Amino acid sequence: MKEGKLALASCSGMSPHGLITRVACSDIVEESDQLISICMGATSADKEVFSDIIKKFPIVAVNGCDASCVDKILKQKGVKVAETINVLNILDGEGLKPKNVSRLDREGERCVNVLKRKITKSAVEKYC
Q1: Beta-bridge partner residues of 85
Q2: What is the pTM of this model?
Q3: Tens of pLDDT along 26-70?
Q4: Contact at 8 Å (CB) between 37 and 85?
Q5: How far apart are the two ends of the chain, measured CA to CA in Å?
Q6: Nearest-10 Cα torsion for 19, 16, 102, 83
Q7: Domain ranges in the chain?
Q8: CA distance 116 to 80
Q9: What CATH number does the domain located at 6-127 have?
């Protein structure tokens, strides 16, 4: 990646997969000063700071399900994402299924760890 940062745009849906997505992305961003988070709600609402960020840095869209809302919102804003990750597919492939919309249980923590490894391997290592 060029000098700069990589942005992670995570699902903000009120589903167990949305929770897993938000937690994994938040954890990864906290662990690296080369990464930033994009708030999809503020992006949708055209909050100026996020309007600037989505044009400035490469973005990895981390969708919670097949609806791909993150990709769709960014496309509506004229942004082409650098990479798309589908959490539902990753967790299904691992035989994992989060169950809670707002709390992480043992299974949820396993889901977060699997997703963090996937995001790091497929996106962060590639762009940072």
Answers
A1: 62
A2: 0.93
A3: 999 999 999 999 999 999 999 988 888 899 999 999 999 999 999
A4: no
A5: 5
A6: 10
A7: 6-127
A8: 23
A9: 3.40.50
C-alpha–C-alpha distance, residues 54 and 28, integer Å: 18
Strand pairing class (6-10; 35-38):
parallel
- Spell out the residues 6+ positions from residue 5 whose beta carbon is closer than 8 angstroms to its own: 34, 35, 36, 57
Residues in the chain: 128
The amino acid at residue 3 is: E
What is the full DSSP assignment across 18-44?
HHHHHHHHHHHHHT-TTEEEE-HHHHH
Copy the structure tokens of residue 106: 């043992």
What is the residue whose two structure tokens read 């960014």?
74
Angular region, 39: left φ>0, alpha ψ -120 to 50, beta rest: beta
Confidence at residue 1, expressed as pLDDT on a 0 to 100 scale: 44
| pLDDT of the residue at 128 | 84
Residue 123 DSSP one-character state: I
Using CA atoms, how far apart are residues 85 and 63, in angstroms rounded to an integer? Answer: 6
The mean of the pLDDT values for the chain is 93
Sequence letter at residue 40: M
